[in-house]
Amino acid sequence: MKKLIGPFTQMLPLTELPLKGALKDEQLHLIPNGGLLVEGGLILAIGDFDELRKANPSVFIEEIQGQQVLLPGFIDCHTHICFAGNRAKDYAMRIAGKTYLEIAKAGGGIWDSVTQTRAADEATLTNLLIQRANRHLAEGVTTIEVKSGYGLSLDEELKQLHAIQAASAQTEAKLIPTCLAAHMVPRDFAGSQEEYLQHLTNDLLPVIKQERLTNRIDIFIEQSAMDTQNGLAYLNKAKQMGFDITVHADQFTTGGSAGAVQVGAVSADHLEASGEIEISLLAASNTVAVTLPGASLGLGMPYAPARKLLDGGACLAIASDWNPGSAPMGDLLMQAAVMSASEKLSAAEVFAGLTFRAAAALKIQGGILAPGMPADMQAYPCADYREILYYQGKLKPGTVWIAGKSHV
Ligand code: NIG
Ligand code: FE
Questions:
Q1: Whose CA is nearest to atom 1 of ligand 1?
Q2: Domains observed in the chain
Q3: Cβ(94) to ligand 1 under 6 A?
Q4: What is the CA(146)–ligand 2 centre distance, in A?
């Protein structure tokens, strides 16, 4: 059924903005008294509410009350929300002064979440994931990438990917799965890093392909995880098999982002340790630079050089990295708003990074309000889009729509 939604005090379609580089708020196209014509889950037309109503006299109207600012739904292009348990112990050690690497060496870190996630059955894991996805959806995040990577064996990685598949059918949020079996070499694997990655290539990736569980492969390239040489060999093989590549890169030390650019990864994520060389490489490439302020906040470490990446000409997306270890908060808007104050990002850059630039990191359409796009969107109870970042994440959307259907 066709319907007209509005009037919105202000509508930000985020259209006609470049995919890469710095943005000024003056470039934002603002539509006052906005309306959207929606059919079959897609946007048919956007524009002035009264004009749309005149042109469609008998159409059903979903009337918006009070002052509301409409944005595309956020796209969180990097999360690890398929996990069981928590790592409050790690966090306590960290705020008492231990480093991420020290905690990992003392038996905490990723391996602890692997143990807790393995202990949960698929149905439990699915339910935990649905709850987190629904919380994100209520906060305006309509598309969520979800990584495996807390299984780290054939069966356990498949269990995670199956849980993501099952959750997709039970939440309105759109979930995009990614295989992160190359998160670290599992402690119980009897062999070298090279052998583990070969095992993944030979035994796991063909099953994932056959079962169509995901077309995205991720790896953690870092001193404590996979080295660049082994990592590149793995990624090249995955690429030959037809997978899209994304990389956890330059979190503590460099190497990952150069590798990501070299294999033509869709995105290089983290980048806290990236310097001038890495910034230039990313800016000259089609690899989206994904900054994860939630990990910086969780670890008490500096943000990725978001300002420099944008000024250098990179495509910068902002994601939550929501995970039980380094980024337990999972509040994407709050993280983006807080980082923007330190990194000096304009509202246009923040909203672009949370929408159509994040869509590019996932190679999906969306993140803009335009004819033909899914009607995934969110309305904030305010009169001016600048209030959204001003309240640093405490102002939440009053209504969230997926495919034109309202949820909150
Ligand atoms: O993106 N850096 C590697 N992986 C995750 C952390 C996972 C964990 O600590 O459980 C991240 O921050
Ligand atoms: Fe991550």
A1: 321
A2: 3-72+368-407 (2.30.40.10), 74-362 (3.20.20.140)
A3: no
A4: 10
